[in-house]
Amino acid sequence: MQPSELPGAIAAQTLLQLRQQAPLVHCLTNDVVQTITANMLLALGASPAMVLEPEEAAQFSAIADALLINIGTLCQQRAEAMLAAIAAARTADTPWVLDPVGVGALDYRSHFARRLLTLQPAAVRGNASEILALAGIVPAGRGVDSGDDSLQALPAARALAKDCGAVVAVTGAVDVITDGIRVWQVDDGHPLMTRVTGTGCALSAVVAACTALPGERLDNVAGACRLMARAGRLTAAWAAGPGSFSSGMLDELYRLCAEDVQ
Amino acid sequence: MQPSELPGAIAAQTLLQLRQQAPLVHCLTNDVVQTITANMLLALGASPAMVLEPEEAAQFSAIADALLINIGTLCQQRAEAMLAAIAAARTADTPWVLDPVGVGALDYRSHFARRLLTLQPAAVRGNASEILALAGIVPAGRGVDSGDDSLQALPAARALAKDCGAVVAVTGAVDVITDGIRVWQVDDGHPLMTRVTGTGCALSAVVAACTALPGERLDNVAGACRLMARAGRLTAAWAAGPGSFSSGMLDELYRLCAEDVQ
Amino acid sequence: MQPSELPGAIAAQTLLQLRQQAPLVHCLTNDVVQTITANMLLALGASPAMVLEPEEAAQFSAIADALLINIGTLCQQRAEAMLAAIAAARTADTPWVLDPVGVGALDYRSHFARRLLTLQPAAVRGNASEILALAGIVPAGRGVDSGDDSLQALPAARALAKDCGAVVAVTGAVDVITDGIRVWQVDDGHPLMTRVTGTGCALSAVVAACTALPGERLDNVAGACRLMARAGRLTAAWAAGPGSFSSGMLDELYRLCAEDVQ
Fold this sequence. Notes:
3 copies of one chain form a homotrimer.
Chain A: E1 4-5, H1 8-21, E2 24-28, H2 34-44, E3 47-49, H3 54-63, E4 66-70, H4 76-91, E5 96-99, H5 107-117, E6 123-126, H6 128-134, H7 154-164, E7 167-170, E8 175-178, E9 183-186, H8 199-211, H9 217-236, H10 242-255, H11 258-261
Parallel strand pairs in A: 1-9, 2-3, 2-4, 4-5, 5-6, 6-7
Antiparallel strand pairs in A: 7-8, 8-9
Helix pairs in contact in A: 1-9, 2-8, 2-10, 3-4, 8-9, 9-10
Family (chains A, B, C): Belongs to the Thz kinase family.
GO biological process, one term (chains A, B, C): thiamine diphosphate biosynthetic process
Function (chains A, B, C): Catalyzes the phosphorylation of the hydroxyl group of 4-methyl-5-beta-hydroxyethylthiazole (THZ).
């Protein structure tokens, strides 16, 4: 069965709710992408914060509307803060999202990510290699960029979603988003997004923001993918290269309206 | 008593001195804003450096012209480096500035910030919620963005300035700057500044640079607020959104001249 | 003997090989410049990754095509990861590059950098003050910006290259690149590059990428200097200030073609 393209009306609804609710997103993310992550959330109307000391990370997760866990530059201290934040988030019913950067190629983070999967993430967002690796399939990638195709990873994504009860988003040239049963597809991105560091990581932060919204979680996560892909395509239509793309995509996210995504 | 608007001639004087002296600013700041902080200092003609290992942080504070302490992503190792740097700065008569990001909402940093207040900062720069919290008034904010009004926080800012001997700047839609007796007001910012991460944190770094200048410290700190607010307003006049604003504000700071701020 | 200007054909060859091979560069770099480092590598067609936990850093260095060690925000944990990564790189014959940020002015990093020199770097890229300090000559700089002239540092660079078997690049208004015997010069940069944080650090990452290319290492390292200087000059021709320069240089690197550098 081919997945269906996400209806624009759903993404429009996600956008409106995001602007109205302005969710406060606690981001425990990698060192390379902190700025673009914060700026993309701000551009869309959400509110980012990064709180790293374990004691505070736990206190803040209980206040925040959503928690992002991105293991791109994982180290022991950060891992400790992540576990404290997730525990507090679960107690407070704050949804949390996993971005399993580089899982499969590297052992330390792979073990850590598998442990996190037992802690009931609301959503998981990765590229095809990462989702295949999380599902226990031998990875093809060397680094953080996926050599695999999102649609090929759909069976693994479905299995992962059923196993851990999360919405799983596999992103790439095409995005597929599944809760294990239903599947949405978003086909709207642009290759320039792969020449700017942090677009995938920032998408995971937007996914986290959208898990805090009311309504169907599958729809909201797919909506997040569509908003980012659409802003990327609008920017690529005029950007001269990755520098103007990176800056321009913030402008497009800021101006994005319901009509743009329908 | 209403505070008086800072005369443009004072801000122009601050700008000229900043360009002539090119102060070397040691920034112990949060992980999200390091790049924009360094770039805003460079654009204005100052010289930033970030030195993190406690032993080196102390050695460097004695060489630098000013020290910035921003507790946005405080952790134990960074706290240790901050204390070593402040101790060395005080011995060397290097002025140091506190940016109490998120104080009030989170206990670990609130305790740490109160400890820092006993170490004679030259200036404190925060939003209304943070200044109210430092002054012992129950905070209204959940995160790093202030729900309170700068002018409402003026009595707290005056009390704080008197208590710790620092110039206190409360920034927001309007900025108020006080040494506990005199008060300047700067009314020149733009809401787009709140949609870019790090503009407030970078302002604190510019405040630190300006505490190294000769003349009245109150005037120089208020001058720093005016320079940044003015560059922000000039940029907002043409920026298409937060991406072009962030990049454009660096250009405006670089081109800013005495006439612009008068 | 005056060094000869690098022939454009060599830089063009470096560019073509860089795009074809797309080397995967493991960057252990300073906190301030991680984003611009990743983005400049991506713009040129290389593939960056930052892996920090010592165990993983070692595992990843064996997979990567080159390793960058930048000591700008050195701390004990990072130093440990760097040593593990270098050891694994040497075992796997992965070339590694040293950027000795701030060496000379600060003791902790100076001792560490001298220790690293015994571990056979493929290349060292610094400003004149840093190269003079590494060669044991008393430094003139206070911070990370060099007060010395690249050509004055050439004898020190030659001696350093012979001592540690690395290609040494001294960059500034003019760049000189030597393997201890031959010397290339690149005279193509622009002062605006000194008003944007991380251009030198990102150059070191591009140098690392180019040590993974086939052919003469001296030529490839000098080629890296020329590519970055050329993109900088092309950008400075139209940039309005450091903000548009920073973003624009990514666009120019992305569009750079063999004709541009010849």
